[in-house]
Design brief:
34% of the residues lie in helices and 21% in strands. The chain has 1075 residues and is of the alpha+beta class. It comes from Penstemon smallii.
């Protein structure tokens, strides 16, 4: 593998110049690492260094071949860059360098540092151009012989890198002289591997930069390039893709990475493989075959880059119209690699990494174990593969913080049942660069996604449909019928077949989702016991309220009349000649009235235990069981002005106190947030000015705009008014949205938080910052203006320019924040602004007013009207489309969450024209949906499921919502129309009140039309019944029987009035509406 570096290349850490050389050695880094070299050598001399008394490392001449040498790695690690054709000898008393004159001048600066840090003398032997260095080598060997022998051994031991064969005349002469010197030789490869294994801060930084470049090249160049080739059906060879990718890596600016090109290189030529020929070894190469992307094909892409000689690697597998075997194998491989990454933590044995991956494969797909690669990767750094850190089952070394690994796993030589020979054999590969940290690990290449939905592509659905159409149309073409009829029948068949095929594919996918949902829910609810869904409201705790701590605080007595003490928040009432104080929080209501004798009355009702809706804590009443409570008092006065004043004072004081206590209670439930770290003077914060905030700050006075700034670990919004400030920590942000003004009046950024924060006095999980792109203008007088009016045209153009300007300001802010979130210290938060997809939006009523609801890649949102709607898609269990029917103009959408403690969210009155689009969107996002003609009552349903989840799964899980299944037997039994009825409910005993309450709060016009039609049909039936009733009544009168009961007469009256208005219970049997 490649070490393609020139002698004159800049050092890894150059900070000063020496003599006439353009580059210099970083003496601080040299001192620290020289000490680390001697420390490791002395501590592990017998374990890793072969008991060597002297270390001799010879670096070969530069080469155009891609290779990794430990001698070159030692040069870069210790001195900052490579010294070709240089011999270094490290001893207890001396360090010798044999090199050319130019290198000697550069090395002069290390003499002083080596003496101060290690106490050794640096001796530099200069080899002239016309010399072979033999004399200098003899001098170095004599110095080695003069070194004292340790442990009483007969001869000194010289350690060298045995796997590196001598190259060039200089190194060949040195190798011969060592062999003839009488010195014992040993291999020090393991010692150098252990020395390089743990990286310092500067090395980690270089690796992170290299990894970021590699991952972004895969994301921003390789993936779009391959997608374009497939979309345009181009013929491009693997070698051509390799060349283009290599050029992109060597010019980081083109892929959006701000790194200097002179510090960047490739680790190996990029690898592209497809068409059944796969080689998962790192030494694999891209051949001249064309990229194969037909159905069931697999494409493997692997790229690696270096920054200041430090390596990184990433590999991804992309599936084109994958079959079941390929999809399953990839999902198993992804889980295995994630398990291996999670096992990386300090103190763990290296073998445990591979064992964790094997355990996943054995559990998920035992048949794939023989095809798994024999290791989970290797260490990576200055070398692409660090010897001694291979992640296999036999390596017992212990992981340490600072180690870096290329976690690479794959399946080799898998077989799929396809007719195409190029798709029968396939392999899979995933690789990431991972850094071991003190508290776990950091995936440095996480920018390149690898989830199944991101790597699986489907391109040939239309082609398959066309082939099926052609096959079905062939008999029609051959038949001897009229040409025009033939064309018409073909067109009709093409349309019908296309729709059926699409619908069938959706049904198959939904059936698979239903199976997965039932299995997932069975695992999730396995530990849920009865009553889990109850007790949702936590008990409220209240502190004992005291108005006066002692008698001395009471105000001096005045007249025996009601007094309000604003300072102590109390009212004093004259009772039996004494002024008795009550804290205003104990007052429930206060009112006044006046009688005919001009006497005024004031009535005060107190909060006491046992009364409905009492705010008195139950614990307080238990603590004071013997107490006597005053429930109500009334006073009479002839001064109406005083009574009105007292009532107003009490109400105002009570309102202020209750607001303060409510805010205090809200703040008590907040999760403590970290302190905001402000950007320093050197780093200017990212700023967006003149913004309004929702929810607004409380208080009176004119509302002011403010500025939103992005600092080190969060946002800060503040206005010019003191106290109006909100801090939002990055780690508290669950979702971030940017919605430019298109058909709305505002451009906004919106944050949906994990934990509540306080905005003013309001507790919220949603904070929005927005700007109105145009002013609300109303023309006085109602005069119409012509569309050709120059003023009108100019005003519209000005509004468009203003809107575009504001949208661009927000877009720039969002882009800069996304770059901030992409930095290594924030990448683990996985934050990125999401933008709503307007083309997938639909109208509905999520709360009380109609709104335009828009999906994003991760959520379903409505961010214009308040209250806001933000629903995370991966928290959804199922979606039920309710009131779906052929004659309906609207339908409802009920969202059931995986957490059954959450209430079901309903979006009502969605136009039926949006039904197909919503179905397609739900299916695309892997959300299982059902259809029903009723509004279901979800609380008892969820309660029944949590009480006995096993029975729910055994009875088919969510399939009770399947409209096709429930309608199939509707002619045989009416029970099929009842939907899912909880086992502890009695459907036959539902009262009329419950029936009326269970109806949808938002009734559509179709409901009314349907009911009208049913009433009309009922009238037709009622006429015949009335005639029978009248005949029976006349017969009874003739017989003298007038003893009908009151219920019978009422029933006859209701029947008789059925012509003008149908009674609630007189309609034809309908499906009950559950809510």
């Amino acid at each position: 593998m490649a070490e393609k570096r020139n002698v004159t290349a800049p050092p890894a850490n150059g900070n000063a110049s020496s003599g006439r050389n353009a580059y210099a050695i970083d003496l601080n880094t040299f001192s620290v690492r020289l000490q680390a070299l001697y420390t490791n050598w002395r501590q592990h001399k017998d374990d890793y260094w072969g008991s060597a008394d002297v270390l001799a490392v010879a670096t070969p001449p530069p080469s155009e071949d891609l290779r990794y040498l430990k001698s070159s790695a030692l040069n870069v690690w210790l001195l900052g860059y490579e010294f070709p054709e240089t011999i270094m000898v490290f001893g207890e008393q001396h360090i010798h360098f044999l090199c050319s004159q130019k290198k000697a001048l550069l090395l002069e600066v290390v003499k002083k540092s080596a003496k101060q840090i290690i106490g050794v003398d640096v001796v530099i032997h200069v080899k002239a151009k016309n010399e072979n260095g033999s004399m200098q080598m003899d001098s170095m060997i004599r110095t080695i012989h003069s070194q004292p022998k340790s442990d009483g051994r007969a001869a000194l031991t010289v350690g060298y890198i045995s796997k590196e064969a001598p190259e060039g005349k200089l190194l060949e002469i040195w190798a011969d002289k060592l062999k003839d010197s009488g010195l014992q030789l040993c291999d020090i490869t393991n010692g150098l591997s252990d020395l390089f294994a743990v990286k310092d801060k500067n090395e980690i930084t270089c690796i992170k930069k290299a990894a970021y470049l590699t991952a972004l090249a895969m994301k921003n160049f390789v993936v779009p390039k391959v997608e374009k080739v497939i979309d345009e059906e181009k013929k491009v060879t693997h070698a051509s893709l390799m060349d283009d990718t290599e050029k992109a890596l060597l010019d980081p600016v083109k892929i959006g990475v701000k790194l200097k090109a002179e510090n960047v290189d490739i680790c190996y030529p990029p690898i592209f493989q497809s068409g059944g020929n796969f080689d998962l070894r790192p030494s694999a190469s891209s051949n001249d075959d064309y990229l194969y992307y037909d159905s069931s094909s697999v494409i493997i892409c692997a790229i690696g880059s270096r920054y200041n000689s430090y390596c990184s690697n990433v590999a991804r597998t992309y599936l084109i119209d994958s079959n079941a075997a390929q999809s399953k194998a990839y999902e198993v491989l992804l889980k295995a690699q994630e398990a291996a990454i999670l096992a990386l933590k300090p103190g763990t044995r290296v073998s445990a990494i591979y064992e964790a991956a094997v355990a996943v494969v054995q559990r998920e797909a035992p048949e794939l174990v023989p095809n798994l690669t024999k290791s989970a990767g290797t260490g990576i750094g200055l070398e692409f593969r660090e010897s001694g850190l291979s992640l296999n089952a036999k390596n017992d070394r212990v992981l340490k913080a600072g180690m870096v690994f290329n976690i690479s796993l794959g399946f080799q030589n898998l077989h799929a049942k396809t007719s195409n020979p190029k798709s029968q054999n396939f392999s899979l590969l995933l690789a990431d660069t991972v850094i071991v940290t003190n508290d776990g690990r950091n995936v440095a290449t996480s920018v390149s996604t690898k989830s199944f939905k991101d790597v699986a592509y489907s391109f040939n659905e239309d082609e398959e449909e066309e082939e099926e159409e052609k096959q079905q149309q062939q008999p029609r073409v051959k038949s001897e019928i009229n040409v025009r009829d033939s064309l018409l029948s073909k067109a009709t068949l093409r349309s019908d077949n296309g729709e059926l095929s699409k619908e069938e594919l959706r049904k198959q996918h939904q059936a698979e989702l239903a199976r997965q949902k039932n299995e997932e829910m069975a695992r999730r609810l396995a530990g849920v016991g009865p009553g889990t869904g109850e007790g949702r409201a936590s008990a409220r705790t209240t502190n004992e309220i005291v108005a006066y701590k002692n008698v001395n605080e009471l105000p001096p007595p005045r007249e025996m009349m009601i007094q309000v003490d604003q300072k102590h928040e109390a009212i004093l009432l004259p009772i039996y000649g004494n002024m008795v104080p009550f804290h205003v929080a104990n007052v429930k209501t206060v009112s006044s009235q006046q009688d005919t004798n001009r006497n005024c009355y004031i009535r005060i009702i107190f909060n006491v235990p046992g009364t409905p809706f009492s705010s008195v804590d139950a614990n307080f009443s238990l603590k004071n069981q013997g107490a006597i409570y005053l429930k109500e008092v009334s006073f009479r006065s002839k001064d109406p002005r005083h009574i009105s004043e007292v009532v107003q004072l009490i109400k105002t004081l009570r309102r202020n106190v209750m607001a303060r206590e409510s805010e205090k209670a809200e703040r008590a439930t907040l999760v403590n947030q970290k302190e905001l770290v402000l950007a320093g003077n050197k780093i200017k914060p990212i700023r967006l000015s003149d913004l309004w905030i929702r929810p607004t700050f409380g208080g009176r006075g004119r509302k002011l705009t403010g500025s939103l700034e992005a600092h080190v670990n969060g946002f800060r919004y503040s206005t010019s008014k003191s106290g109006e400030r909100v801090d939002i920590m990055f780690e508290n942000i669950k979702h971030a949205f940017f919605q430019p003004a298109e058909k709305e009046m505002i451009t906004l950024v919106h944050f949906h938080l994990r934990d509540h924060i306080m905005v003013g006095t309001k507790k919220t999980k949603d904070v929005q910052f927005y700007v109105e792109v145009m002013e609300m203008v109303q023309t006085l007088g109602g005069g119409k203006r012509s569309m050709y009016d120059p003023d009108e045209i100019e005003e519209e153009q000005r509004e468009r320019d203003q809107k575009n300007k504001i949208n661009m300001q927000f877009q720039n802010f969002v882009n800069r924040v996304n770059d901030l979130w992409g930095q290594p210290q924030l990448k683990d938060l996985d934050l990125e602004f999401d933008q709503p997809l307007r083309e997938l939006g639909f109208h509905g009523v999520p709360y009380k007013a109609s709104a335009f609801i828009i999906p994003t890649s991760t959520c379903l949102v409505e961010l214009i009207e308040t209250p806001f709607l933000v629903i995370t898609l991966n928290e959804i269990e199922i979606v039920n489309l309710e009131r779906v029917g052929l004659a309906q103009k609207n339908f409802d959408l009920a969202i059931v969450f995986k957490d059954f403690k959450k209430d079901v969210i309903r979006i009502d009155s969605i136009p039926s024209s949006s039904l197909d689009g919503i179905k397609e969107w739900l299916d695309t996002t892997d959300i299982k949906y059902y259809e029903s003609r009723l509004n279901l009552n979800w609380k008892p349903i969820l309660k029944t499921i949590t009480e006995d989840p096993q029975q729910f799964i055994e009875e088919g899980g969510w399939e009770f919502l399947n409209l096709e299944a429930t309608d199939s037997d509707s002619d045989k039994s009416e029970d099929s129309d009842q939907g899912y009825v909880p086992s502890d409910a009695e459907p036959d005993s539902v009262s009329e009140d419950e029936d009326s309450d269970s109806e949808s709060l938002v009734e559509s016009e179709d409901d009314e039309e349907e009911e009208d039609s049913e009433e009309d049909s009922e009238e037709d039936k009622g006429k015949t019944w009335d005639e029978l009733e009248r005949e029976a009544s006349n017969a009874d009168r003739e017989m003298g029987n007038e003893s009908d009961s009151e219920d019978e007469r009422r029933r006859r009256k209701m029947k008789a009035s059925g012509k003008s208005r149908a009674a609630p219970s007189g309609a034809a049997p309908k499906r009950p509406k559950f809510r």
